[in-house]
Design a protein that fits this description.
By secondary structure, the protein is of the alpha/beta class. It folds into 2 domains: about 140 residues, Rossmann fold (3-Layer(aba) Sandwich), CATH 3.40.50; about 90 residues, SIR2/SIRT2 'Small Domain'. It has 8 helices and 9 strands.
Length: about 240
């Protein structure tokens, strides 16, 4: 990995795209959760606008459960390395598909939340008095589902549900970020679009592209370099090599 470390050391514009694999070492629970708590539900019953309209309390019980578990997780070495890079490079962007907020807790700057955040809420009714979203770090809500503080209507998690489009502003930020020297895709299967197409576009624009993932993905042949391994292990090794003078 020494040639990659040298390339990264010389780069000025670095963009990293992250997925669930970056948070795995932090113990962030998978969709089905501990002991199959939610194994009787399909994703369409929990992560769509239709599901929320049908049973907002059920959907919020799932999200409240996720928020409680993630609140107990800590950033791992992968998050720490990326936070250090965000301070080091003059032009650094991190586009994350994760909604857990661990990049921000690690101190990473210039984070583009491609799929939103578990810690942001928005008004289900999109009331005129409400901002687009608001931050709420409350682990235990006084009641479920929580309410919009502006109109009293239902609040929803400000995440991108299945069947919903990426926010145009977020997409614009992401496309601007992939104008870079080096683009790393870390801990994602790279099959969910439009996020999966970002690295391809970065390469078309002249970036050197790298995939870091424990297993090959459908996108692996399209990268300039693929490094097998866990995010926290590979990024730590890269950081160590970059720090050697």
């Amino acid at each position: 990995m020494l040639p990659l470390a040298d390339r990264l050391r010389k780069a000025s514009r670095v963009t990293v795209i992250t997925g669930a694999g970056v948070s795995a070492a932090s113990g962030v629970p998978t969709f089905r959760g501990v002991d199959g708590l939610w194994s009787n539900f399909r994703v369409e019953e929990l992560a769509t606008a239709e599901a929320f309209e049908r049973d907002p309390r059920l959907v919020w019980e799932w999200y409240a459960w996720r928020r409680r578990l993630i609140a107990e997780c800590e950033p791992n070495r992968a998050h720490e390395v990326l936070a250090a890079w965000s301070r080091r490079y003059p032009k650094f962007s991190l586009i994350t598909q994760n909604v857990d907020g661990l990049h921000e807790r690690a101190g990473t700057t210039n984070v583009v939340r491609f799929h939103g955040s578990l810690w942001d809420l928005s008004c289900w009714q999109r009331c005129a008095a409400s901002p687009v979203r608001w931050r709420d770090d409350t682990v235990l809500f006084p009641a479920l589902p929580p309410r919009c503080p502006h109109c009293g209507g239902l609040a929803r998690p400000d995440v991108v549900w299945f069947g919903e489009a990426i926010d145009p502003g977020v997409l614009e930020e992401s496309l601007a970020a992939i104008d870079c020297d080096v683009c790393l895709v870390v801990g994602t299967s790279a099959v969910v679009y439009p996020a999966a197409g970002l690295a391809d576009e970065a390469r078309r624009r002249g970036a050197f592209t790298i995939e870091i993932n424990p297993e090959p993905t459908e996108a692996t042949p399209r990268f300039d370099l693929a490094i097998p391994g866990k995010a926290e292990v590979v990024l730590d090794e890269l950081e160590s090599l970059m720090m050697r003078r």
